[in-house]
Each structure stands twice: as structure tokens, then as C-alpha cells.
Write a structure and sequence with these properties.
Blueprint (H helix, E strand, L loop, with lengths): L1 H12 L1 E2 L7 H31 L5 H27 L10 H18 L8 H28 L1 H4 L3 H30 E2 L2 E2 L1 H25 L4 E2 L2 H6 L2 H9 L2 H31 L5 H27 L1 H20 L6 H37 L4 H29 L11 H28 L5 H19 L2
Antiparallel strand pairs: 1-4, 2-3
Helix pairs in contact: 1-17, 2-5, 2-7, 2-8, 2-11, 3-5, 3-15, 4-5, 4-8, 5-15, 7-12, 7-14, 11-14, 11-15, 11-16, 12-13, 12-14, 13-14, 13-16, 14-15, 14-17
Keywords: Membrane, Transmembrane, Transmembrane helix
GO biological process, one term: sodium ion transport
Protein name: MFS transporter
């Protein structure tokens, strides 16, 4: 009942464009957006490090430093780009969609260039080439991802449908993950070794698929809501920052997301070495990707009903606790076969899938709370700050991943790694995730304040604020 009231009132506060009703077409369009994003994002997060260590012959710790510098730069670019978009006037095609169309082509081109190896060059050249191309790709990724992520709030103002968009977005990401993790290893590795030409081929294939997805997102999605010109002109950075400092849900979800992203990037990098070296089968990555991704899709049908009954905070926390238990258990079972490891870890992935499936709805609640604090709707800026935290997580994870792999004794020049290195890799893949998932569980339970009851109270508060403003 309250959701319907908020939807109707918000249309009086925020101009809604006359267009077709929100429906399946928008959900599919939003799905394709992250489908396109993650064709390269997951390729990079899962396989770029092994490309640099085994093909460019760059030390893992050095690569970690490159990742840290580039991701911190990208984090700043996110906020600058988000602020820039929030101060622009919406055009005929909307406020966010045109940027997806314009910037997707240079983004994909820069992604392909990352996997180009010019033969016969010096180690210094490969180092410089890796740094520049990775930095350019990350910057261009911001110009597409920020408008894409912000767009959910203008596709519909209904909070329930925004939760659906979050689920469809995650489905798009998981479809890309399924393809990359299943098909990727079969293309990238020859006789259990990374192959330069195969990496280039994969980059071109996934680049073409990525462009097709971006165009589908642009064509299928519709922006229905625009901020009135008078409100847009009132947006001030000082007011925004003060509101964010008072926004406890934003701060806590930033911490949780940063921590989760750090772990996801670390595990993505470590898993390549886990299967290639510890289990002795790089091709097993494909089956791991298939089974673990299937676990996420199994969780999808349960999300809406569980959120309705218990709340987003509650199911996300329960999922994290399950994941923590699973990975801590795996740490004490070092003699498992690759198949046994994959099946058990899939249970853990089923757990944290619930956080992934509702996280973008968390962001919508955070944007609502920012409106409650400041009285202004700043979708692009708030989303970019959230993305900033994720990029910082990526930066730290890239550094931690490189340093961690190097610190356990991994040596790309050796055909067989030492027992110490193998044990270290297994610890990075099990004990570390178990501890971090437990930390995220604690953050969600004790720091994030918007449980089911308080989220409903926030919706009622915003309803009253909009009614009062509309009556003036």
C-alpha cells in the first residue's frame, strides 16, 4: 500500500515522461547493461593478472601496485563523472542512456588493446603498456558504468520494481560470469598454459558481445523520470557532502560493499592459480564457473518472496553467515579433489548470492535516505560515491592479490610450484574468504540500520515530505 502511495506522490514531485509503462522490456534492457559491463570486467578481474605474470612476465607484486594506482584513479573518476552527469540537463533520449551509447565503443576498444602483445619488446615497454592501457580502460569504464548504474532510479520510481531491476542486473552479471568462467579457460589456455594469441581472440569475441549488449540496453530501456530544472539548479556539493556524513545507511553499505569487492577481486585472481597449480587443471575453472554460477541462479527465484517476508538486510546477512561457515570449513579440508571443492564452495556462493541480488536495491534505499536528509534527489552523485567505494575495493584487492600471490612464493618461471606456495594459495582461497564473509555479516547486522521495519518507516517519511512539498 505504502509503495503505491509513494509512487504516485513522487510523480508529482519529479516529472515523469509520457512513455510506455514500465515492464519486462525495461528489465531485459537493464539486464543487458551489466551483461555488457561484465564481459570485460570479469575477464579482467579473473584473467588479467595471469596474463601479465605469464605472458608479459611482470612480477605479481608489481602488477598489484599497478592495480592499486589505476583503481584509485578510477574511483576519483567515478565521482567526477557522476557529479558531471547530475549537473547536466536531460535530453530527448534521457539523462543517462546517451552516455552508454556514446562511450561504449571507445570502452570496448580500450579493453581489446589491453590484451595486445607486441612481440620482441623490452620488459620496461610491457610494464608501461600494461599500466597505460589498464588506466585508460578503467577511466572509460566509469563513463559507461556510472550512467548505467544511476539509470535504475529514473526507469521507475516504484521501490518494488527497483528491487526487480537489481535482480535482473545481477542476472546479467552472472550470465557474463557464466560465459567468461566456463568458455574463457577453454579459449585462453593451451596445454594448461596461458596463450597470448588466445587471449587476444577472447578479447575480440567478448568485445563484440559487449557492444551488442550495450546497444540492447540503450534500445530497450526507457528513462521516465527527470528532475525539475528548479531542483537541478539547487544541487550544491556542500549540501550533498553534509547529507552523506549523516547518511548512516550509505556509510555502512559502503564499508560492506568495499569489503565484499576486495574479496571478490582477490578470489577471482587467486582461483586461477588455485585450479591451475594447486589442483593441476586450469580447464576445471570452466566447471567451477558453471556450477557456482548455477548456485546463484538457484537463489534468484527465492529473492523476491524472502525480501517481502524478512527484508533485504535480513536475507543478505543470513547469506553471508552461510558463506562464512562454508569457506571456513573448506580451509580445514585441504585434501579435497577439485570436484569436491567446487561442489562445496557452490553452497557458499549460494549464500552470498543473496547479497549480490539485493545490493543494488540497497543503493536505492540509500539514495532515498539521502533525499530524506537533504530534501534533494541526487542519483548520479550518490551512486558514483557508492561506485567510488567499490573501486577503492578493487584497488586494494588488486594490490592484495598481487602481493598475496607473490608472498606465498608463486614463481611463474617454475613449472611446478613449491608446497609452501600451493598451501598458501589454498589458504588465500578458503580461510581469507571465510573470515571476510563473517566480517561483512557483522557489518550488515550491527551497522546497517535499514531493516524491514525501518525501511517501511523511511518510505512513509518520504511520502509525508513529498506531500508537504507538493502542497506548498
Amino acid at each position: 500500500m505504502s509503495n503505491m502511495v509513494i509512487h504516485n506522490v513522487s510523480e508529482t514531485k519529479i516529472n515523469a515522461k509520457a512513455s510506455r509503462p514500465f515492464g519486462v522490456r525495461d528489465k531485459l534492457g537493464y539486464l543487458f547493461g551489466d551483461f555488457g559491463n561484465d564481459f570485460f570486467f570479469i575477464l579482467v578481474s579473473s584473467f588479467l593478472m595471469v596474463y601479465y605474470t605469464d605472458i608479459f612476465k611482470i612480477h605479481a607484486a608489481t602488477i598489484g601496485l599497478v592495480f592499486v594506482i589505476a583503481r584509485l584513479w578510477d574511483a576519483v573518476a567515478d565521482v567526477v563523472w557522476g557529479r558531471f552527469i547530475d549537473t547536466r540537463k536531460a535530453g530527448i533520449q534521457g539523462k543517462f542512456r546517451p552516455w552508454i551509447f556514446r562511450m561504449s565503443f571507445p570502452l570496448v576498444l580500450s579493453g581489446i588493446l589491453m590484451f595486445v602483445k607486441i612481440p620482441g619488446m623490452s620488459d620496461g615497454f610491457y610494464m608501461a603498456y600494461a599500466f597505460v592501457t589498464y588506466l585508460v580502460w578503467g577511466t572509460l569504464y566509469s563513463t559507461v558504468n556510472i550512467p548505467y548504474g544511476s539509470m535504475a532510479s529514473v526507469i521507475t520510481s516504484d521501490s518494488v520494481e527497483r528491487t526487480t531491476l537489481s535482480t535482473f542486473r545481477t542476472m546479467g552479471a552472472m550470465l557474463a560470469s557464466l560465459i567468461i568462467n566456463v568458455v574463457g579457460p577453454l579459449i585462453l589456455f593451451v596445454n594448461n598454459k596461458a596463450d597470448s594469441n588466445r587471449f587476444m581472440l577472447a578479447a575480440i569475441i567478448f568485445g563484440i558481445l559487449s557492444i551488442a549488449c550495450y546497444m540492447a540496453c540503450y534500445k530497450l530501456s526507457t528513462e521516465r523520470i527527470t528532475i525539475p530544472e528548479t531542483q537541478r539548479n539547487k544541487i550544491q556539493l556542500r549540501t550533498t557532502l553534509k547529507g552523506m556524513l549523516k547518511n548512516r545507511p550509505l556509510i555502512s553499505i559502503l564499508i560492506a560493499s568495499l569489503t565484499f569487492m576486495m574479496l571478490s577481486m582477490l578470489v577471482g585472481a587467486v582461483n586461477v592459480y588455485l585450479f591451475k597449480n594447486y589442483f593441476g587443471s586450469a580447464s576445471m575453472l570452466s566447471m567451477a564457473g558453471l556450477i557456482q554460477t548455477a548456485a546463484v541462479f538457484i537463489a534468484i527465484p527465492f529473492v523476491k518472496s524472502l525480501v517481502y517476508k524478512f527484508g533485504k538486510k535480513e536475507i543478505a546477512a543470513a547469506g553471508m553467515l552461510l558463506s562464512a561457515v562454508v569457506y571456513l570449513t573448506l580451509y580445514f579440508l585441504p585434501s579435497l579433489t577439485a570436484w569436491q571443492f567446487v561442489i562445496i564452495s557452490a553452497v557458499g556462493m549460494f549464500g552470498f548470492a543473496f547479497f549480490n541480488l539485493v545490493v543494488w536495491a540497497f543503493v536505492t534505499d540509500v539514495i532515498d535516505y539521502q533525499e530524506y536528509v537533504t530534501g534533494m534527489r541526487e542519483d548520479g552523485t550518490v551512486y558514483s560515491v557508492y561506485s567510488f567505494a567499490r573501486k577503492v575495493g578493487q584497488a586494494l584487492a588488486g594490490g592484495i592479490g598481487g602481493v598475496a600471490i607473490g608472498s606465498v612464493g608463486y614463481d611463474a618461471a617454475r613449472s611446478v610450484q613449491s608446497k609452501e606456495a600451493l598451501d598458501g594459495i589454498y589458504t588465500l582461497a578458503t580461510l581469507v574468504p571465510g573470515i571476510v564473509y563473517l566480517i561483512i555479516f557483522i557489518i550488515i547486522i550491527f551497522l546497517y540500520p535499514l531493516n524491514k521495519q525501518r525501511t517501511s518507516q523511511l518510505a512513509e517519511h518520504l511520502n509525508e515530505m513529498r506531500l508537504s512539498s507538493g502542497g506548498k
